[in-house]
Amino acid sequence: MMKLTQLSVFLENRPGHLSNVCGALSAAHLNIAALTMADTREFGILRLILREWKQAREALEAAGFVVNTTDVVALEVPDRPGGLESILKQADAVGLSVEYMYAFAIKQGENARIVIRFDDMQRAVEVLESTGITFLRAADFYKQ
Question: How many CB atoms lie within 10 A of CB 46?
Answer without folding.
Answer: 22
